[in-house]
Amino acid sequence: MRLLIEANNIVIKRLSALDSTAVCASVAQYFSPRKNIAMAINAPLHETIEVDQYRARVGLCQGLSLGAFETTSGRMIAFYINRIETGGKTNGSAVTSDTDYFKEKYEWVGPISRLSEHAKENIFRDTGVEKPFEIDFGAVDPKYSKHGISTTLSIMSEDVAKENGCDSIASFVTSSYTLGSLKKLGYSIASRFDLSYYVDRKTGLRPFVNATPPHNIVGSLYKLL
Ligand SMILES: CC(C)(COP(=O)(O)OP(=O)(O)OC[C@H]1O[C@@H](n2cnc3c(N)ncnc32)[C@H](O)[C@@H]1OP(=O)(O)O)[C@@H](O)C(=O)NCCC(=O)NCCS
């Protein structure tokens, strides 16, 4: 199922590991530089790009991710990295052990990982969820901002989740735009933080006090399918 929709000169396609070069370029251009959480703790851009591109490559291997392309030029203008977790938990994947590697390598990864783990804690409590699908991260070329591309990719990710027998879809979002958009799509908010007040459990510090809107609002959302 390569071609999913075609409208308004934009085509949405399922991505595979073969799209790695284009996705990694988009990550470096549209995701890492605007992820103000990393900016807030002064993580060097080349390091955040390295970690984000790694996460993208791992996600792509599952063949569940989506990309939006200009039909005329074939240029990638947006991507959503999706994956299926194991064991009904959002931290049970191969990415976890690799996160440990990056935690050792870069000091700034620890606080971000703990924030993500904290936000995902108990996300599926009392829901009976067995096979969750995760929208890991995504970005849209600012030139195409507010054209509904992210919303479209969210809706189409639900279809991919259902096709793969998942009983739920979840995401840890790092933007109030995405949080609001998923809420409109019927997601429940499991956790929501204003990063200015967030205290790192391990250090007792407030590592993201300088995060700026829309990336000062983060949280976990889920929807049962
Ligand atoms: C967040 C992001 C993915 C939104 O992509 P998009 O294609 O512009 O989003 P959509 O057009 O589908 O809009 C989704 C919602 O966000 C709002 N939004 C998006 N960009 C906005 C902007 N610049 N200002 C105000 N609202 C904005 C839209 O109004 C819409 O809200 P609505 O449903 O109430 O109308 C995109 O801005 C981006 O790539 N940001 C940088 C990386 C990032 O933050 N990724 C997500 C981390 S979880």
Q: How many strand elements?
A: 8
Structural class: alpha+beta
What does the overall shape look like?
globular
- What small molecules does this complex bind? coenzyme A
Question: What is the count of helical runs?
Answer: 7
Overview of the molecule:
36% of the residues lie in helices and 24% in strands. It has a single domain (3-224), classed as Gcn5-related N-acetyltransferase (GNAT) (Aminopeptidase, 3-Layer(aba) Sandwich). The protein has helices at 20-31, 36-40, 45-60, 94-105, 109-120, 149-163, 176-184; strands at 3-7, 10-14, 66-70, 76-84, 132-140, 168-173, 188-194, 217-224. It has an eight-stranded mixed sheet with strand order 1-2-3-4-5-6-8-7, sandwiched between helices. Bound molecules: coenzyme A (COA).
Write the layout of secondary structure elements.
Elements: E1 3-7, E2 10-14, H1 20-31, H2 36-40, H3 45-60, E3 66-70, E4 76-84, H4 94-105, H5 109-120, E5 132-140, H6 149-163, E6 168-173, H7 176-184, E7 188-194, E8 217-224
Parallel strand pairs: 5-6
Antiparallel strand pairs: 1-2, 2-3, 3-4, 4-5, 6-8, 7-8
Helix pairs in contact: 1-3
This protein binds coenzyme A.
What is shown here, in short?
The chain is of the alpha+beta class. It has 7 helices and 8 strands. The protein has helices at 20-31, 36-40, 45-60, 94-105, 109-120, 149-163, 176-184, and strands at residues 3-7, 10-14, 66-70, 76-84, 132-140, 168-173, 188-194, 217-224.
Write a concise keyword list for the protein shown above.
8 strands; 8-stranded mixed β-sheet; globular; binds coenzyme A; 225 residues; alpha+beta; Aminopeptidase
